[in-house]
Specification:
Oligomer: single chain
Strand content: under 5%
Helix content: over 70%
Order of helices and strands: HH
Number of strands: 0
Shape: rod-shaped
Structural class: mainly alpha
Radius of gyration: 22 Å
Largest sheet: none
Length: about 80
Amino acid sequence: MLETIVNGFNWIMDLLQTIADFIVNTIMGLGNIIKSIPMVINMLTQSIGYLPSTIAAFATITITISVVYLLVGRQTGG
């Protein structure tokens, strides 16, 4: 009987720790996205600056989509 109560409290503590880890990882991920914005803008302006004006619009769209895919897929996997 006492062992069941202890196991229940351990399960509740594990659940709370999992929720806290999720919140911390979400906040850290948002921080990484915010920190990478200046680097992305700098890369974009330098890349577009060397292209002819007719290709610049297509390059801007391509780079923007690529950066979004990189940011969204950064924390997936292992």
